[in-house]
Specification:
The structure holds two protein chains of two kinds. By secondary structure, chain A is mainly alpha-helical. Chain A contains 20 helices and two strands. The longest helix of chain B has 31 residues. Chain B is elongated, with a radius of gyration of 18 Å.
């Protein structure tokens, strides 16, 4: 019985999915406010239950495992889906298929949890697929809009392609090792030719999912074409979870190949930061801008990954928590803007402070956090990432990271300038407020302002990473 | 009876893999692109089964992995086909060159 409780997160998500089925049978989703309120409360309960004490161990002869770190990562992601559900309230209210949105989002998060807990490459593969297939359906959510269909198509084709490459790598790894459970891969790994080939293919597959340059070409189009709530989910949950898994893959599974992957990761990191920041310079669409910004952020995450130490994984998990809060806040404001004015262009943010000081301030905190300006948590996140990168003594990488910090500052401050200094082209009407969005934005902003000043959070992550 | 050596099978699967990649990048028809992805997945399947039979015949891990790949590939293809059908019904195209609303 104890062992079954290891699945607690998955069981709760499965129960929520079943509840959605019952709700759709009783046509509960036509009562819009009641349905959305219930879902938000259920997601809140799901998030709170996650913090109850939890057994750790493995099950199904090592196929499924749980550690304190995995539990913490799942809690971060639970917070993410709760905040996304709150920020997309207004959009879901208008959308006809709100139940399906929750259905797909929960199915995807189920896959993410399986992926995080996997102790065998078969489970890892199934988790990756379970988490990406529903997202493609979500991207294609506005069935009447051409760019939404395009986004769905591009996402499913590129993700299937990347999975294919990853699978080819896994099959080579199977040939080299003979048994695909994590323990036996770690025990039997030798840096021979076949293993290196296998690793390269697997790395390419994961780089696709994390949209690392040069595997990033799908990102901007998919982010732009999907509805804002889905873009939010893609950039935060999907990317964050793959980064978490990537840590396990590199540090544990391929820990024996550290000397080989260190340089590969550094080059990918330099490319992602530079290309992401340079392409963000000329974007006019807010979602496209955040797509390239997220590519650059993954580049910074890789600096921490290249640290190849406990501090590397601590700083990455810490940074993802901050990145989640800042990106959700930014997408929340963009969503409010798009709901009221129908425009997603950065130009429409001009003069936002005069008409809507409330939203402009939230946006500024989020952007400062993404750029890494001191009082906000993003600064601490980047500080720890760069400090972790120092461990490997890759000074060229750190130099590029420094230059890119300046570049990214220019990018984000450009939007701040639009909001505070520039005159509005067309006056923005006061945006509609709703309680749910306000709660989410306030939570994110408070989180961003105080996380950096609570050392307990960093110490807790450090402690669970050591175990 | 003499067995086919493992290297021959690996050459076959690598050829399939790169044919799939070539097809994915050069074809403009969405259905054909899906078929190319199937080629890539099947090359991985051949690898799994060959390694299982030749190198590790005492357990069936590779064969089971293959079965899961086939099932997941079916799910993936059914979703892509649904998206493609939706695109075709509304916009009358399955040519990837026409899906360029968001180039810049």
């Amino acid at each position: 019985m104890d062992n079954v409780l290891l699945f607690r997160f998955e069981i709760i998500i499965a129960a929520l999915i079943l509840m959605l089925l019952v709700m759709s049978l009783r046509d509960f989703n036509t009562k819009v406010t009641a349905f959305l309120g219930t879902m938000n409360v259920l997601l809140l309960v799901n998030f709170l239950i996650g913090w109850l004490p939890m057994y750790t161990g493995s099950y199904f002869s090592g196929f499924f495992r749980t550690t304190d770190l995995i539990v913490f990562e799942k809690n971060i992601l639970n917070l993410g889906i709760l905040l996304i559900s709150l920020t997309s309230y207004q959009w879901l209210k208008k959308s006809e298929h709100r139940l399906e949105f929750y259905f797909l989002m929960l199915s995807s998060i189920m896959g993410v949890f399986v992926m995080l807990s996997s102790g065998h490459i078969l489970m890892l593969y199934l988790g990756v697929e379970m988490s990406t297939i529903p997202i493609a359906a979500m991207s294609n959510f506005n069935l009447d809009e051409k760019r939404s269909s395009e986004a769905g198509l591009k996402l499913i084709l590129s993700s299937a392609f990347s999975t294919g490459i990853m699978l080819f790598g896994i099959s080579l790894l199977y040939g080299a090792v003979g048994n695909l459970s994590f323990d036996s891969v770690i025990a039997n790994l030798h840096p021979d030719m076949l293993t290196l080939f296998a690793f390269t293919f697997i790395l390419a597959g994961f780089a696709f999912k994390m949209s690392i340059v040069p595997f990033h070409l799908w990102t901007a189009d998919v982010y732009e074409g999907s509805p804002i709530a889905v873009t939010n989910f893609l950039s935060v949950i999907s990317k964050g979870s793959v980064v978490f898994v990537f840590l396990t893959i590199l540090y544990q599974l391929f820990g024996g190949l550290k000397d080989e992957w260190l340089y590969a990761i550094s080059i990918l990191s330099i490319l992602s930061m530079t290309v992401g920041n340079l392409f963000a310079l000329r974007q006019q669409n807010a979602k496209r801008f955040l797509a390239f910004s997220s590519i650059a952020q993954v580049g910074f995450v890789l600096v921490g990954v290249a640290g190849a130490s406990v501090m590397g994984s601590t700083s990455v998990v810490y940074f993802i928590l901050i990145y989640l809060l800042s990106n959700i806040a930014a997408f929340g404001v963009i969503g409010a803007m798009a709901d009221s004015t129908g425009s997603e262009s950065l130009q429409s943010f001009k003069g936002l402070y005069k008409s809507n000081p409330f939203y402009a301030l939230f946006m500024v905190v989020a952007l400062f956090s993404l750029a890494g300006v001191p009082p906000v948590a993003g600064f601490f996140g980047k500080l720890f990432l760069l400090t972790a990168g120092m461990n490997s003594k890759l000074y060229v990488l750190l130099g590029f990271a420094g230059v890119n910090l300046v570049l990214s500052l220019y990018n984000y401050l450009r939007v701040v300038k639009y909001m505070f200094i520039d005159e509005a082209v067309t006056t923005v009407p006061p945006l509609q407020r709703n309680r749910q969005l306000t709660i989410a934005l306030v939570t994110c902003t408070i989180g961003l302002l105080i996380i950096g000043f609570i050392p307990a959070i960093y110490q807790y992550i450090d402690q669970i990473c050591r175990m | 009876m003499e067995q086919v050596p493992l290297s021959h099978i690996l050459i076959l699967s690598s050829a399939l893999f790169f044919l799939g990649i070539y097809g994915f990048f050069s074809r403009r028809n969405m259905i054909t692109m899906l078929m190319s992805i199937e080629l890539i997945l099947n090359s991985a399947n051949i690898n799994f089964i060959a390694f299982n039979k030749y190198l590790f015949p005492h357990q069936l891990e590779g064969v089971f992995f293959t079965m899961f790949i086939i099932v997941v590939a079916a799910a993936e293809v059914s979703l892509s086909i649904a998206i493609i059908i939706n695109l075709y019904r509304r916009f009358n195209t399955i040519d990837i060159e026409d899906t360029t609303t968001m180039k810049y």
